[in-house]
Amino acid sequence: MKELIEHTDRINRLLARYGVKFGIYRNGEFHEQLFPFDAIPRVISHEDFQHLEKGLIQRVDALNLFLNDIYGEKNIVRDGVIPEKFVFLSSGYLPQCEGIRPPKKIYSHISGIDLVLGKDGKWYILEDNLRIPSGASYPLIAREICRRASPATFSSNAVVDNRNYAELLRETMDWVSTGGIPVIMTPGRYNAAYFEHSYLAEKTGSELATCSELSVENNYLYYRDYRGGKQKVGVIYRRISDEYLDPMTFLPESLIGIPNLMDVYRSGNVAIVNAPGNGVADDKGIYYFVPKMIRYYLGQEPVLKNAPTYLPFYEEDRRYVLENLKKLVIKDVAEAGGYGVVFGNELSGERLAEMKERIEKEPRRFIAQEVIDFQDMDIIEDGKRVPRKADLRAFVLSGEKTKVWASGLTRFSRNADSFVVNSSQGGGFKDTWVLSR
To answer: CA neighbours within 13 Å on the CB side: how many for 320?
Structure first.
């Protein structure tokens, strides 16, 4: 591994040359920056991964059952497991998706589950990302470059090969396809994750297309290539948010969507990966109920734990949160990418009073969690090893079977005092090694 660490600068130069960057918008302007890579990997033992795999499959299967239920019979609401108002007040719940059954009844084909490893040695799930989770391409290409930089590192360590992600993704897309070519739909070059869109299109043998190359005719979706040829699309892996997907159904001002796409989808003539409407299941408030979903739908005890979470929506929890705000982390359920996260111990007296007032006024808008003291990981900074907080985004793919990719995106904070690791907040990433024995 020493040789690999010595090649860190070279690896980052190659990543930059390949365009492995992350774009963010600040003050209405698009800024693109290198997604910094650290060569010291996260290492997960074979036994630990087996435990993670079991828990992640269980969780994603329950979430898919919940989505089928909530846009169908709504039994979980009728049985009082989740409050009706709580579900239907979610900004991620889309009435336009009521009654639609996606091909093979799969809503979340690619789930990005964020976990941390506590200092108690236990894994805790922080978030479920079921809309358009990004990040799989980064460890994929980083491993490819690391193998070139230091072949000996991988021949002398029993690391599971992670190059099968594209194969898993293509298998998932083919399983739900309604017959036709696979397409990865991108909003374009200035999207934050455009590198990933183009990279995965190449690796899966899918067409990379913008809305201008896709159109609906006679209730089918077609792709027009650069020669003017037309091909029917059977599955579209969309990388744009629900509200921009179809201006005839959602935001009429959307210029990056496909008019009448939802009609084709409703008719069962195209599969959309991930399905529209998934946001109701990865709402940070709904997260609280996932252990109950697992018991309700699967009749099992959850293998992996949530972080200890309180819902101000409930009066008892609200009282506790207001009395203990200083030692909790508050999350706005409508935010993502590390935004809307507030640590109570960092608030001044005035801001603390303001936060309490907001929670009392809009209890459905917030959740509160105990601060998990999760493990530090070493990174190289200015030639020295220094500890930083790091999480893991595991990728779970649901096709004929639910499978966990034996790798993942380990993100770390570059700020010594920060628990926030998101790339949009300036974090970096590591490779994730799963040991084969």
So the answer is: 17
Question: CA 279 to CA 93: how far, in whole Å?
Answer: 6
Tokens of 277: 């409407």
Q: Could you tell me whether strands 110-117 and 29-34 are parallel, antiparallel, or unpaired per DSSP bridges? A: unpaired
Count of beta carbons in the 10 Å neighbourhood of residue 361:
8
pLDDT at 1: 66
Neighbours of 161 (CB within 10 A): 12
Q: Which residue has the higher pLDDT, 220 or 341?
A: 220
Structure tokens at 78: 């009728």
Q: Strands, E, within 171-275: which ranges?
A: 181-185, 207-209, 214-217, 220-224, 230-238, 271-273
* CA atoms of 354 and 347, how far apart (whole Å): 10
Encode pLDDT of 61-107 as tens digits.
999 999 999 999 999 999 999 999 889 989 999 999 999 999 999 99
Token couple for 149:
């930089």
User: What's the CA gap between 198 and 346, in Å, rounded?
Assistant: 40
Other beta carbons within 10 Å of 128: 25
**What is the pLDDT at residue 31?**
67
3-state secondary structure of 214: strand
Q: Return the axis-axis angle of helices 315-323 and 349-361, rounded to nearest 10°.
A: 180
β-strand partners of 376: 389
Percentage of the chain modeled with pLDDT above 90: 75
* CA–CA gap between residue 263 and residue 277 (Å, rounded): 15
Residues 6+ apart with CB under 8 A from 122: 305
Mean pLDDT (whole number) for 122-142 = 94
Average pLDDT, rounded, for the chain? 92
Burial 259-298 (b: 16+ CB within 10 A, else e): bbbbebbbeebbbbbbbbbbbbbbbbbbbbbbbebbebbe
Q: In what order do the strands lie in the sheet with 328-332?
A: 309-310, 366-370, 328-332, 341-343
Contact 169, 162 (CB under 8 A): no
Give yes or no for a contact between 224 and 210, defined as CB atoms under 8 angstroms apart: no
Helices (H) and strands (E) in the chain, counts: 13, 21
DSSP 6: H
The pair phi, psi for residue 133, each rounded to 5°, is: -65, 130
